[in-house]
């Protein structure tokens, strides 16, 4: 089943409304509502449990909401359901083009080995160039959307010379395992999980194709009045970065239960992740602008955008 981005966003917001409503602080309380996914350092921070006491020291509470992938998370920020979250490179570009009131806050270094195009182990397809005319699953507007476009372009296949099948990761895995698609472009930990349990074979990862940055984003109306809270979150994200980078095996063992991912799969994903949170700078803005320009040239954006217009540079 192909699910539209709009439908996914509506379903995600509806699903989280009850939990978010129950967790929303009273008017006199200060709160930061964080959206996270099954990848990246925000879920590690949640599992670690170090953020809550640091925020309490400055008079803030935190609530958490899980999202299936980036576009619904950014729709939730735009709708006022959460204040802060993280995605890959592509979702903020689609969100900005749609008029979402978001700003870039920080980013992680490139992690190109953290996403891949997969085929079944017994597939006759041996190279990306053989995907011409084939069905390729990926989440529309996600990092894997851009990765698939670039990897196929590098192999000489133009956009329109293959059939994109827009599926969220769980649905894409089902389609992949039942042979309803020929290939699947996806990120960790779904990538690592497919390697471990879905008889998946890697055609290519992102190395030499895409940077695969992770971005932290926030509501434009939230950042100014709540700079202290955002600074604390970023500081704690850096501390988790340092801990996981130093000993991914131990981190995987400790976080496996809270995150709900088997330790060996989580360890594989953590070793392919990047660490070292950084402020938004001209170089990463230029990379994002290049992605946005390509999406617009392909007719995938409704209008051209200027990425630097939504870059928050406090503290840089």
From TrEMBL:
One of its GO terms (molecular function) is ATPase-coupled transmembrane transporter activity. It comes from the Bacteria. Residues 31-247 form the Solute-binding protein family 3/N-terminal domain. Its main location: periplasm. InterPro entries: ABC_SsuA_sub-bd, Solute-binding_3/MltF_N, SsuA/THI5. It is found in: Periplasm. Gene3D superfamilies: Periplasmic binding protein-like II. Keywords: Signal, Transport. Residues 1-27 form the signal peptide. One of its GO terms (cellular component) is membrane. It holds the Pfam family NMT1. Belongs to the bacterial solute-binding protein SsuA/TauA family. Part of a binding-protein-dependent transport system for aliphatic sulfonates. Putative binding protein. NCBIfam families: PRK11553.1, SsuA_fam. This is Putative aliphatic sulfonates-binding protein.
């Amino acid at each position: 089943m192909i699910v539209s981005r709009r439908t996914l966003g509506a379903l995600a917001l509806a699903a989280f409304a009850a939990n978010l409503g129950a967790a929303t602080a009273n008017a006199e309380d200060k709160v930061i509502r964080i959206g996270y996914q099954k990848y990246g350092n925000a879920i590690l921070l949640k599992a670690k449990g170090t953020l809550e006491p640091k925020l309490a020291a400055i008079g803030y509470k935190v609530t958490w909401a899980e999202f299936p992938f980036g576009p619904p998370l950014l729709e939730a920020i735009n709708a006022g359901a959460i204040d802060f979250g993280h995605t890959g490179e592509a979702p903020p570009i689609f969100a900005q083009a749609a008029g979402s009131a978001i700003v870039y806050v920080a980013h992680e270094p490139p992690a190109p080995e953290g996403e891949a195009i997969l085929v079944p182990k017994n597939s006759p397809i041996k190279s990306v160039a053989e995907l011409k005319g084939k069905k390729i699953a990926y989440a529309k507007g996600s990092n894997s959307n851009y990765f698939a476009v670039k990897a196929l372009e590098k192999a000489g296949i133009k956009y329109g010379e293959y059939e994109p099948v827009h599926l969220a990761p769980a649905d894409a895995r089902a389609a992949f395992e039942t042979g309803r698609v020929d290939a699947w472009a996806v990120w960790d930990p779904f990538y690592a999980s497919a390697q471990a349990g879905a008889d998946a074979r890697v055609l290519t990862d992102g190395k030499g194709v895409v940077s695969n940055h992770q971005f932290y984003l926030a509501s434009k109306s939230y950042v100014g009045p709540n700079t202290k809270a955002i600074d604390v979150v970023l500081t704690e994200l850096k501390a988790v970065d340092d801990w996981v980078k130093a000993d991914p095996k131990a981190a995987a063992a400790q976080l496996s239960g809270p995150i709900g991912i088997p330790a060996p799969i989580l360890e594989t994903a953590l070793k392919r992740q990047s660490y070292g949170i950084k402020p938004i700078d001209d170089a990463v803005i230029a990379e994002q602008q290049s992605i946005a320009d390509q999406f617009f040239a392909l007719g995938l954006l409704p209008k051209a955008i200027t990425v630097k217009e939504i870059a928050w540079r406090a503290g840089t």
